[in-house]
Structure formats: C-alpha cells, structure tokens
C-alpha cells in the first residue's frame, strides 16, 4: 500500500525565463506525480522576487509553489528531475500535515480567547 502525503514544493527558477512559460514547463515535470497516482492540487507562480543572497550570480529568481498529494518516492523523483535542470536555481520540499496544523491553530486560538477573558 502506497501512502499519499501532502507536500509543498518551492522552486526558484532563472530570472531570464519568460514567466508565461513557467507553468506549462513545470507541468511536464508534474507528470511524474500524476503517473504514480498522485494529484497536483495547485501550481502558483509568484513571479520574480529578489533573493536574499546570490545563487549562480543571480540576484533575482522566479518563484513557483507546487501543492501536491503524492507518494514520497514520486516527490523525491520530482525533486531529482528539477535539480538536473539548469534553469532551476533551488528547490525545497516540505511535507505538510494539514490536520496537525489545524489542531495547533485551534489550540493557539483557544489560549488567546482564554487570555482575553481573564
């Protein structure tokens, strides 16, 4: 049985790329997720942003965030394939746990409400 987990992948791309072509080009990489039974929830292209430090002599990069539900092996393969591309400056994969995050937010809200009553 394959466990599906929720992941968020941040990709920083070369700033010389045309921003309109980014989502379609990322879509070809996302076939790794789709062919293994995963699901691509959302692809957000944030656009060109200034980097906090230079990467490969680039002071800016184009940010894209991918929201996925997939098996760990498929996400690992996606990260590997993105890392092989010269136009990809950096990637960061984060495993998200929506239920745990919601519980933490509810607990913080309850503490704040209790403090407000006191």
From TrEMBL:
The entry's keywords: Ribonucleoprotein, Ribosomal protein, RNA-binding, rRNA-binding
CDD domains named in the record: bS6
First and last residue of the signal peptide: none
Gene Ontology CC, one term: ribosome
Matching SUPFAM superfamilies: Ribosomal protein S6 (SSF54995)
Coiled-coil stretches: none
Described purpose of this protein according to its UniProt entry: Binds together with bS18 to 16S ribosomal RNA.
Protein name, UniProt field: Small ribosomal subunit protein bS6
